[in-house]
Amino acid sequence: MKFSFNGYTNDAFYDEMFTTEGQIRTGYEHLKKKCEQLTSDELTNRQLSAERALLSMGITFNVYSEGEGSERIMPLDIIPRIVPSSEWNQLERGLKQRIRALNMFIHDVYNEQHILNDGVVPRDLIESSKCFLPACMGLKPPKGVWCHITGTDLIRGDDGAFMVLEDNLRCPSGVSYMLENRELSKQIFPEVMARTGVRPVSDYPNRLLDMLRFLADRPNPTVAVLTPGIYNSAYFEHSYLAQQMGVELVDARDLVVSDGYVKMRTTNGFQIVDVIYRRIDDTFLDPQAFNLDSLIGIPGIFEVYKKGRVALANAPGTGVADDKVIYAYVPRIIKYYLQEEAIIPNVQTFICREEEDRQYVLENIEQLVVKEANEAGGYGMLIGPKATKKEHAAFRKKIKDNPRNYIAQPTISLSRVPCMVDGHAEGRHVDLRPYILYGDDIHVIPGGLTRVALRKGSLVVNSSQGGGGKDTWVLY
């Protein structure tokens, strides 16, 4: 039986592929035609083959929330998400604007603090942030860049307009899935991609390496990827990126501070490392500077960094702009530093540390999404409409006990894209995480990882919470 989109409904949600009248949106024509030339069994087999390929390539992540670690693939739904050129160009401008302003903000916070002195961002908000590192005061990172690699989460609301859901400026993950999903798309829909005109993402590792080399003072610098180790949930990505860039993958056992430099153990003795792409959180990076109990850091590396003898990406302290409460101030941050309005708006956000907002959240928690300031991966979050009265009461208490640690937002009906479900198409909610590199210039990779809530009706797209991925095609 031929596969068909007949009977597919968007259920009043904004659909990426079809209008409310059922008309096909720009860019999806060749894909729809190809899918309907195949049988449901053929498309299902392509879906299963893609998942087997991910497993055989070892493209997995570890889940520890269930009591013991288990390895899983991030399921790939083979029907891609397509973004027209005009929409992407606007997103690209908005993301560049946002990263430029956030980089200025981080530098200001750790140096002159103009924005705090002027009261645009409350001083106590910064000083109470778990990600604010007093040890970074006065720090000036190589080439003046703090947030070298960013993954900014975007969503569409009911009206189809993009909004920023959150910023990820510490150790954003998922780019390996973006790259491998694209390789699988090339195998599944090669002629469709050619006819549709899809911008490439395969140059990401080269762009990443060029950006890292830009940070070094010496010609032909030695670059390494620093991983917490094989038990980290994103270890595959660390090893994958190191392999794609042709650089060493190292952990704490491989590096040592000696003679004022960071050196790597090799079969030919110690070798100076110039640039480190770290996939370790700030506070675990150096037990002498941050966390005495860290067993995965390199003692003394922060002092070497402050002297300019090694470059770190992202810079320590960057997480201060990753705080979900700081997120609420980003439009003001953009206005303050760039004298511009934000091109991509935030989702409306209630700041629980502010009395009026807090009272509104406590009274309307059943309709809101509540988030902890520094949690990620879908943890520390309450989706009010889907939570129980007991859960509502528990979060009310948490907010009252520690209002600084919470924000709340309206429950947004995320846009949907058709997915393969039991041989037919059903709509599932998605977000989009584009990746931005900041070196000598800011470059937004034309695509990103579309994360999809594979559970019917779910709004949680995180892989650790049952989400999957889609390839994202940005058109020329």
UniProtKB/TrEMBL annotation:
Pfam families: CP_ATPgrasp_2. SUPFAM superfamilies: Glutathione synthetase ATP-binding domain-like. InterPro entries: ATP-dep_Glu-Cys_Ligase-2 (IPR051680), CP_ATPgrasp_2 (IPR025841), UCP005522 (IPR016450). Residues 80-453 form the Circularly permuted ATP-grasp type domain. This is Putative circularly permuted ATP-grasp superfamily protein.
